[in-house]
Write a structure and sequence with these properties.
By secondary structure, this protein is α+β, with helices and mostly antiparallel strands. The chain contains three helices and four strands; from the N terminus they run βαββαβα. About 20% of the residues lie in helices and about 25% in strands. The chain has a four-stranded antiparallel beta sheet.
Length: about 170
C-alpha cells in the first residue's frame, strides 16, 4: 500500500487583486490572523476574461497563500470579505507533495482545525459573521447589473469590474 500524501492537509489558495496595495492588505491579514503561513504577492499578472459580453484584459496582482486544508473555507470567506471585487477569483488547489520541513512549518504557523471538543489549538479565528474590514483605498467595488449573471461568467476568470471603472 502506498504511503499517504504527506501534503494532503495543506493547500494553496490562488487569488487575484486589482492592485498591489489590495493584495498586500489581504496577504498581511491572512498571515496576521494565522489563516495562512505564507502568502506570495505576484505582480505582473494579466487576466483575460469575458465580462458583460466584452472580452476584457486587465493587469492584476496574484496571491498564492499556503494554509491548512481544514481552514480553506475560512480562508476563502475571509478573502471574499476583504476583497474589493464582487466576484473575486479565489481558487483552492490541493498539494500532492512538498518539502517536509516546509509543510511542517506551514502547520506550525497556522491555527489547527477545531476538534470535537471545540479546541482550536491556537488563537481565535475571526467569526464568519464578523464585519468585513473597511474597503481598501484606491479600489471600487463593482456593481454588476442583473444581466451580469448570465452565461458570461467563466469559472476561474472571476475578476469583474464596473463599466465606469477604468481598466488597470
Amino acid at each position: 500500500m502506498a504511503d499517504p500524501n504527506p501534503a494532503d492537509d495543506i493547500v494553496s489558495v490562488f487569488v487575484t487583486c486589482g492592485s498591489r496595495e489590495a493584495a498586500e492588505h489581504i496577504a498581511t491579514t491572512l498571515v496576521e490572523e494565522r489563516l495562512a503561513a505564507c502568502v506570495n504577492v505576484l505582480p505582473g499578472v494579466t487576466s483575460v476574461y469575458r465580462w458583460q459580453g466584452e472580452l476584457t484584459k486587465d493587469a492584476e496582482v496574484a496571491l498564492l497563500a499556503k494554509c491548512r486544508a481544514s481552514q480553506a473555507a475560512v480562508v476563502s470567506e475571509r478573502v471574499i470579505e476583504l476583497h474589493a471585487y464582487d466576484v473575486p477569483c479565489v481558487v483552492v488547489h490541493p498539494l500532492v507533495g512538498g518539502s517536509p520541513t516546509f509543510l511542517d512549518w506551514v502547520r506550525s504557523q497556522t491555527d489547527a482545525p477545531v476538534d470535537a471538543g471545540g479546541d482550536a489549538g491556537g488563537e481565535a479565528l475571526p467569526a464568519a459573521d464578523a464585519e468585513p474590514s473597511a474597503d481598501i483605498p484606491g479600489e471600487e467595488r463593482p456593481v454588476p447589473s442583473s444581466d451580469d449573471a448570465g452565461g458570461d461568467l467563466p469559472g476561474d476568470a472571476s475578476e469583474r469590474h464596473n463599466e465606469d471603472e477604468p481598466a488597470l
